[in-house]
Amino acid sequence: MMQSVKLNNGVDMPLEGFGVFQITDPQECEQAVINAIETGYRLIDTASSYQNEEAVGSAIRKAGVPREELFITTKAYIQEMGYEKTLTAFETSLCKLGLDYLDLYLVHMPFGDYYGSWRAMEKLYKDGKIRAIGVCNFLPDRLLDLCYNVEITPQINQIEHHPHYQRTEELSLMRELNIQPQAWAPFAEGLKGMFTEPVLLQIAAKYGKTPAQVILRWNVQQNIIVIPKSVHRERMAENLAIWDFELSAEDMSLIATLDKNCPSMLDTRKISEIKRVYDYLKNPVLTSL
Ligand code: NAP
Description:
Blueprint: E1 4-6, E2 12-14, E3 18-19, H1 26-39, E4 43-45, H2 53-63, E5 71-76, H3 83-97, E6 102-107, H4 114-126, E7 130-136, H5 140-149, E8 156-160, H6 168-177, E9 180-184, H7 198-207, H8 211-221, E10 225-226, H9 233-240, H10 249-256, H11 271-282
Helix pairs in contact: 1-2, 1-9, 2-3, 3-4, 7-8
Bound molecules: NADP nicotinamide-adenine-dinucleotide phosphate (NAP).
């Protein structure tokens, strides 16, 4: 049975959810979210930059599951950073989703005036409009600095995390700060040979599972929330069928050997990457971020 984690403010959050990055066609996105909810997902992860909040909102209404059973996340992007801009962005996102509160609102990137945004998110949180607030892609130095300078410690840091990028020291710091880690791109977006990794294939065969299921299970066994994305209903079900087996300590150690300690998707320390992110804002192309 799906488990949940208690965030540092006492809110329960499912350990597994459904991500909708790169599902840009409104009808496809709406259908994917309806299918995901019907399959059993309750946590849906979107972002203003994914430009599919309306489709997610429409799916939520059509799926017919009571609002309080769902856990809806969206994110404020760089051009929405700053106190006033984030207050406005929040109302825009809420309106597009057709909701009257959010379960989780995240700072999407560690760039721009995210301190101003954080104060806006603290206000929205205190006003009861958001149940939890957090950040994404914060490396240890910025995360620690943020914690020293804000009233409310983030509940979540959503980071790239998969067998090739395991970030064990960063995870220890998050545990120390009582910030819940959440893994994005748990499959490295299906690239870099993740599904044909021999160690994962060998472990998967042992349990009659797939490499995708082993990767997700490896995350949740470390108490890391996962949000895999798929537009295929059978994969949605496959990705959810991870609650009936347990990886052994030996399996966990074997997977630990796959770490390349190198981001596959996003490196916010790289000058070229920062330039790419800001260039994107001048000419947004949906599939590039
Ligand atoms: P991902 O979940 O690692 O991988 C998705 C890819 O894997 C898709 O191509 C999907 O294909 C394929 N796939 C899914 N399940 C599969 C299975 N069981 N077997 C084989 N292939 C499978 O990548 P992601 O979408 O980038 O990350 C997940 C979520 O994290 C996003 O949707 C988004 O919500 C969030 N995210 C956040 C950030 C951030 O900066 N905060 C960045 C990136 C992503 P099909 O769809 O064709 O099935």
